Amino acid sequence: MTPVVTTWLETGSKNKKQQHRSAKMRMLICLTLFVELTLVDGQIQPMPINDPLTQTRTDFQPSSFNIFDSFQARPSGSGLNTDAQSFQIRGQNLKTIDWRNVDRRAEEGWWHLYPFGERYYDIDITWRPWRDLQIDLDFFLPFYGFRFNYTFVFPEGFVAFSYPQYIQPPYTMPNRRWPDEPDSSLIAAFMGEQSFIHVGETRISHVWYRVVSRPINMINPFGDFGFRQPVQQQQYLGPNLPPELANTQIPIRTYAGQQLKTAYGRIEDPELDIQRSMVGARGFKADYALIVTWERMGYGGAPKITELNMYETVKKWQNTYQMVLATDEIRTYVMFNYANVNWTSSTQAGALFGRGGKQSAMVGFNGGNGTGWYALPWSADGNSYKLVQYGSAQVAGRWLARVDEDIEYGGCSNDSIGVLQLDKPQATMLGGFTLNVTGPCFRPTDVLKMQIDESTLDCERLDMVMARCVVPVNSIFKTGQVIIRLSVDGGKNYPWWNKFYILMPSLARRQVNLINDPVVLNNNWRSFNPDNLTLTWPAANITVNPNAQVDITLWGYWEDVGSIARNSPNRGVFSFNPRTMSKTDMKPDAWRKYTGGLLQIRVSQDWMKDRGDGIYWSDLIPFGWYFHDVWQYQMGKNWATDMCIDWFQYDGRRENFYMFLENAQPCPCTLDQALLDVGRYVALMDCDINGDHRCYYTQGAQHCVVSVRSVWTGAGQVCCYDWQGWLMFSQDYEFNDQYLRFYSAGVPYRAHPYGAFPYKRPPYVPSLSNFYNDLLPYEYCCKWAGHCEFYFWRRITSGCQEYRPPAVGYIYGEGHIITYDGTRYTFNGKGYYVLTTLKSKNNHMMVQVRMEHPPKTLCKLLCCYYYPTTVVTGLAAQDNDSAVVQIYARKEFRRWRYKTDVYVDGTRVFFDTPWQKLQTFKGVTIRSRPRNMNMSELEVMFDTGMGMLVQEARGTLNVIVSVPPEYNETYAYRTDTFGYPRTEPATGLFGTGKCANFYRTMGLFGTFNNDKRDDLTTPDCNVVNTNYPPSEIEARNVYYEFGERWRADGIRHPLLFQTKFQPIYNPLTFASMNYQPIFDPWRNQNTSFWESLIFTREEVRVTCQGSPSCEFDYLTTGRREIGIDTLMNERKFEDQKRLGEKILISCGPLTKNYGVLKYPPGNNYLDGVTVTFTCQPDYFLHGDQQRHCINGTWSPGWWPWCRWRDEEHALKWFTGIIVSLLIVAVLVAIFCYCNSMKKEKLKRRGRQYAIGREIPLMNMSAGKVWHWPTRPLDRHEASC
């Protein structure tokens, strides 16, 4: 055995073509390659070495060069072993090399490629049985909304998820003949006709692949909290282990050529490279990866067999590149690594020796099914060789993209203008968060500045790809979408931008978790005297320094109040006793100003320079546990009552917001009305029947709603409903602190929970103003002091006397429509149509729908009669100058995660996380129900009061539109300069008659005027009449004379749909004059033999229970479940419309005192209701026992009140005694009076006279009468 050491350095001259190509290259690659081999029996063998997979070596790491560094030419034709000894591979020894012991990247220094070949147990697809190209995956691979558990690897430089229609040029992406021809989903690393090249009898072209998966014990479904268990290395037990690799720790080979990752940071684990090169990928873990390598592929038409001595020449005209698909089954990243690109096209495409031609190789992503093609730079333009010289990551030749939902290119760009990539789509209004951004390639000399809202920030360059911007606390003063702009020239120009969403504090993600003790109820963060409190936070993310310390501080409405702990170890959990906690750094008089706020955890030493998150916030909480001892010392033991009374007096001196709120936003009378009024009311965040049902401030409520917008004072209406569906009134509250456990009515808020413009001053600050003005007083009046009457005296529930319900229309199933006024008909148009519109002096509303064929069903696949019907698959709406909202139903196989795609002013928005469930945009608010994670139910609420409820079902959209009473038909008169109406009709409105003199809500949903007779009114004011169910003639008349007149053609009715967001195809392309929908599916010529194999018509009649809509859908689709869905949706909406649109007359709540019981127990104060009042067993009733609600007015009577039984008995005895004494006193008084009168008379006579009779004597002449007293009677005469 004689060692032969051969070193090689290229010093000779290149040929002219190589010189020309080198002159065009802007940068060269510099690598020095050394290989040590031994020559044994004429064969090249490596020296015995340890397996490189278990050792950390710099030569196996991706090169750290980038496009701004100078490159040197790397030598060709040399190999490298891990002991740094070089050798030369020639055509003569290709056949004798044992590639199981040689790294294929070593020959030309392709170290930015991940390992491939026999040495790493890759599979060559050319040796697979029957040349099977399909790879079955034991995991799901999301790609552009689809989800696959298989893939096809093609030698033509791409992987696909179905066989494409053609795999030879010319290529057209997407397939323009779709859906008549397949449009395959594929990922093209270098899509072009290619060939396998042989040198002599040795094939040097290969297509390698392997699947890498993380062991299940290394996959943490709850995220990485820094508690990693040590991973045990596994021994290879296969039969073909080389002797020099015996007892070496390497991955275990598993079925289907898969490998298990047995260590973190291995070279084939792409997650670290992805995290370094793409913003937003910091928490990504590549649990599964598919690595495909095309090695030394020749162009199509190249000679397949050459002589051995032509090896050096042949390999200079071959391409080597790699594709890495990494996923955690939710996110998918694609990495392209290009080693050599020496040809760009094939002979069949018109190329000459691999260059030129009509079409070069394509590089990019095809979504499939008509969803679109996304190309990388230099795709199909003849300059594909630049893919090696440049890259979007920090490694030349490496390109990255995220492809699970949308195609998001990673890395940086040399463009001068573009869209920024952000690591997060939203953050809290409180500030204190970091933004990692990428867009332009950052140079060391760049001066980076960012504009967000009204602030300009300095940013730090992390590397060529990423920059870090820190948003300070108290620097953003609004919620909703804001524009972020980035400058690289110190603020002179801001050519890079993106949209960013600012969350209100109550909806933002809470990284600080406040733990309430479920055993000791007093240890609660809302309590004022707990013994122990605990909080947690993600310690691994707040800082990158494992030895960093954190401060835990209190923030009361934008100001640092004090601290719980400073310079505390960053352990992720902290417990303390509030009673013994030190308050040495508490700000003076903080106890007077701040009764509640938030907890903040931040890195102690200069958090803005830390590379972690830096700051975390908690939920809004009261500070009773912090200031309890101070309040008690300053105000005495009745501190809570004093605070409540102080608030009561202060709030009474402020502006009376109630007078503006009562008439503008009265409460709906019933829960049915509140649920149907989606345009004016939305569910309260913490008391939602379909979500969070804690109802902490509204105990006993089944559901609460809050007004979508505030009045000009910033106030908002809150209405709550009990489990019988009646409105709960604060007047029914019994003044007992225990009563709050099961009854606490909704009350109007001085500050709307969502805030209002201008946001930055009270009481318009989102969340914080509401917490300070409305929620904190509830805490210390109701919870701490036990005197909730003070709170309810200032926050009286609004009645529903002035409430007027909305009108609703519904389109569902296959074009079935129920208008605002209740007319029913079916319209199967194909294209874009105006669902409802109104153009008046105050409103300009437009709602359009997109209608196309439903997915093919089993009946249609079995050659049943093809029913030309349509369903709603898209919706676009705008009211006044609001943002344009577009909602699309996702197609089949793309609904595994999201059911719909939502765009607001051209920007896609998501609602799949708790902090994204409610988002506010210009003039419109969109909400997804908290328990709905697939975006299949959306509520769209415009500031004008119009709302929409969009529900996705089996790829179709069912839409409910709710319009307020103001959208009803109104007379469109003019007024002169003195305010008097003119007689001539208003101009500018189309049509004649009512269409000229009235503002009317019209469209497919009919004319909203409470008159069914003119529901089907065309834009030119012609009325079409129909019955339900209609005859075939009536159905034709409705289609041609009414429905088609409301087509959104872009002329009379501007099209709201944006063409770039049409995920399948433009419906106008198939809305031809030859299209004619089905009008009567019951006709005999519409039946077939195949139909009888699926269902019978008698079965249709029985299933649909007489519903024409259900029968129509059942017959046209052949699917029983679709017919039943239509039937259930129709009946549900009928009940909603009947109950929600009913105008109810309310008399308002009756005032009652403590202890009064009302029957019926529900808060029903509607017309015709008789309310009976009783008292609790220990009380007696006073006042009228019954009151009647008649036409909005209560019958006359005294308000009821109750008195305690013992008190009543005591009062009765006391009254009896007093009355008796009064009677005796009166008798004594009478006796005394008579006796005194007698004595007075006797005194006037001077002596005692017996009682006798006076004898009158009359002087007849003078007319006078003289009285002569008689003599006193003797004793014996008086006795007689």
Automatic annotation (TrEMBL):
TM spans (from-to): 1213-1234
Gene3D superfamilies xref list: Complement Module, domain 1
NIDO domain location: 249-406
A biological-process GO annotation: cell-matrix adhesion
InterPro entries: AMOP_dom, C8-3_MUC4, Epithelial_Barrier/Signaling, NIDO_dom, Sushi/SCR/CCP_sf, Sushi_SCR_CCP_dom, VWF_type-D
Cellular localization per UniProt: Membrane
Segments forming domain Sushi: 1145-1204
Keywords for this protein: Disulfide bond, Membrane, Signal, Sushi, Transmembrane, Transmembrane helix
Annotated disulfide bonds: C1175-C1202
PROSITE patterns assigned: AMOP, NIDO, SUSHI, VWFD
GO cellular component, one term: membrane
SUPFAM superfamilies the UniProt entry points to: Complement control module/SCR domain (SSF57535)
VWFD domain span: 807-1054
Listed Pfam families: AMOP (PF03782), C8-3_MUC4 (PF23263), NIDO (PF06119), Sushi (PF00084), VWD (PF00094)
Domain AMOP: start-end pairs: 636-795
Signal peptide: 1-42
Record-given protein name: AMOP domain protein
Organism expressing this protein natively: Trichinella nativa
